[in-house]
Amino acid sequence: MKTVNSGPVFKKPNSALVMMPKLGKLTAVSRKIFNVLLHATQRQVHALAQEGRIVEATHYFSARLDELVTPVERGHSNLTSCAKKSLLEMRRTEVDWEAPDAHSGVIWSNMSLLSEAKIVKNGGILYAYWALPPG
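-> C-alpha cells emitted (135 positions)
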C-alpha cells in the first residue's frame, strides 16, 4: 500500500487479478466490502512486516464491523446483518487461480475467498475476524 495526495492506495497484485469465480457469486455490496476487507488485510500485513513478524497461515485479520460496512452501507440499519450476509457470500464463493505467467511454480489452484469469518463482540464493540486461505 502506498500513500498519494488523496490518501492510501490499495494495490492488487497480478496474482489477485487472475482469480476467476467458479462457484457462488458476490453482490455489488459484497464486492465492495471484500475490497475494504482486502485493504484492511494489506494494512495489517504491512504493520506486521514493520514489526518484523510474518503472517502465519492460522492468522486472523480483524476490523471494527462498522469500518468494514460503513464505506458501502446505504440505509442498512443493521450492520451485523449486512456484514453476515457479505461474509457468508465470500465464504461460499469459490475461485480458480491460474498462473499469470509460464514461470510460476503453481499453475492452478482452487480456494474460497475466505477460509473462515466470524463476528465478535468485544467491550461492547462488534469486530469482524477473517482468515484467508493458507496459501
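The CA atoms of residues 115 and 133 lie 5 Å apart.
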